[in-house]
DNA sequence: TCTGGGGTCCTAGGACCC
DNA sequence: TCTGGGGTCCTAGGACCC
């Protein structure tokens, strides 16, 4: 989906069409209805806090505002841009609608989050009918139908890439955004893919791209030209081999239509950094609230879990995790809170905190009888000796 | 003026088991 | 008396994605 959150908001506030709009941050900056019926919107320049841009309209992107960017930084680049808070319920509703619209025409769908899917057209009648005289005419028509159906169901546009595999489709879908439709064959790889930055490949992030650049590699084509043995030397057996394959557009992953969650979590970044001692009561409340929310999520979704984990982010952004695997799966807030509390005791809390999170892994369904480990776990040595008065929580 | 929240997967060491 | 090999589980951290 194109600029998904922002596009959904524009359906609600059509007067903002054509303007730089940024979605992100919290509650406070809802538009206010004036007496004459017009609306007063918050501007990016008025924002203070720790929020980030989740989505920016293409007009805002032209001003240098991109998703993931801190709103305070975005405000320097586009002070006059409109700022709207997130409305996840609305996005979820539109997400369901667009996926249902696609499924009417092509039911083999892999979920990739709220605004993205992979579709397997392999068995869709029509996609291959034209093979022989116009091999791609059939798929192009089908893709256009899918786009039409999504627009009919949601009034939103999407961009589609049609290629032999998921890796290439992900890249292709971004070649003609917004409202794009791009078809690529293996023959197009040298001309269309190799000139690109390695960053365009799903799985090459900022770190890998920076390392490639250090090695003098700035395009996918240069990765493809590199000796695979050398790539493995530089990046390890698994990632190095994958880099070689990916740069040649090779990807055998199937479209996965069903998957079970691995973990469920809740976390929150505080408006100001909190100290375990000075802000003990506040932190304790937040900690308990996270556990209660997590328990609610687990119960609503019908899972229990055996591995309770916590995540702490300190001032300066250093992140630490601890987890604890219980003998039996649990689901209730009290058990989660107790296990998470035990995890917390293993962390040095002398630095102030900016984030606290609670996570449940090792998920199973209530019916499952978990084979419980026969042997009790040995007591683990505490990694860091803790300052005496900071261990209580 | 630093950097959300919800996830997945990978690596690597140590414990433990056969 | 200085010592295998294979496997799983647990834990911590990090890269990456939407």
UniProtKB/TrEMBL annotation:
Pfam families for the chain: IMS, IMS_C
EC number: 2.7.7.7
Domain UmuC stretches: 1-205
Single Gene Ontology BP annotation: DNA replication
Source domain of life: Bacteria
Enzymatic class: transferase
Keywords: DNA damage, DNA repair, DNA replication, DNA-directed DNA polymerase, Magnesium, Metal-binding, Mutator protein, Nucleotidyltransferase, Transferase
GO cellular component: cytosol
Catalysis: reaction(s): DNA(n) + a 2'-deoxyribonucleoside 5'-triphosphate = DNA(n+1) + diphosphate
Keyword Cell inner membrane belongs to the record: no
InterPro entries: DNA/RNA_pol_sf, DNA_pol_Y-fam_lit_finger_sf, DNA_pol_Y-fam_little_finger, DNA_polymerase-Y, DNApol_IV, Rev_trsase/Diguanyl_cyclase, UmuC
One Gene Ontology molecular-function label: damaged DNA binding
Gene3D superfamilies in UniProt: 3.30.70.270, 3.40.1170.60, 5' to 3' exonuclease, C-terminal subdomain, DNA polymerase, Y-family, little finger domain
Family membership: Belongs to the DNA polymerase type-Y family.
Protein name in UniProt: DNA-directed DNA polymerase
Species this protein is from: Roseateles toxinivorans
């Amino acid at each position: 989906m194109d600029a998904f959150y922002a596009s959904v908001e524009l359906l609600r506030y059509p007067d903002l069409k054509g303007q730089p709009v940024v979605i992100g941050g919290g509650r406070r900056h809802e538009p206010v209805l004036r007496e004459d019926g017009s609306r007063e919107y918050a501007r990016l320049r008025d924002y203070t806090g720790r929020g980030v841009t989740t989505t920016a309209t293409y007009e805002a992107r032209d001003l240098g505002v991109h998703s993931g960017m801190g709103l305070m930084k975005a405000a320097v680049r586009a002070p006059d841009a409109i700022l709207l808070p997130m409305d996840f319920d609305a996005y979820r509703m539109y997400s369901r609608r667009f996926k249902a619209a696609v499924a009417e025409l092509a039911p083999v769908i892999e979920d990739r989050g709220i605004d993205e899917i992979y579709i397997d057209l392999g068995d869709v009648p029509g996609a291959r009918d034209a093979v022989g005289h116009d091999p791609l005419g059939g798929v192009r028509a089908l893709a256009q139908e899918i786009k039409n159906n999504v627009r009919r169901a949601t009034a939103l546009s999407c961009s589609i890439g049609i290629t032999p595999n998921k890796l290439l489709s992900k890249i292709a879908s971004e070649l003609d955004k917004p409202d794009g439709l791009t078809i690529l064959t293996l023959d197009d790889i040298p001309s269309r893919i190799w000139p690109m930055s390695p960053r365009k490949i799903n799985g090459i992030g900022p770190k890998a791209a920076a390392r490639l650049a250090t090695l003098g590699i700035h395009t996918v084509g240069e990765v493809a030209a590199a000796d695979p043995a050398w790539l493995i030397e530089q990046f390890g057996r698994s990632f190095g081999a994958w880099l070689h394959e990916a740069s040649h557009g090779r990807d055998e992953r199937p479209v996965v239509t069903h998957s079970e969650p691995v973990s469920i979590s809740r976390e929150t970044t505080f408006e100001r950094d909190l100290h375990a001692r000075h802000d003990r009561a506040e932190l304790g409340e937040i900690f308990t609230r996270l556990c209660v929310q997590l328990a609610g999520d687990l119960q609503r979704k019908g899972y229990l879990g055996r591995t309770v984990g916590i995540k702490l982010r300190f001032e300066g952004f250093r992140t630490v995790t601890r987890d604890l695997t219980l003998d039996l799966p649990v689901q209730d807030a009290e058990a989660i809170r107790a296990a998470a509390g035990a995890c917390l005791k293993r962390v040095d809390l002398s630095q102030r905190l900016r984030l606290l999170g609670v996570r449940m892994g090792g998920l199973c369904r209530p019916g499952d009888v978990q084979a419980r480990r026969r042997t009790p776990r040995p007591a683990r040595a505490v990694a860091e000796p803790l300052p005496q008065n900071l261990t209580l929580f």
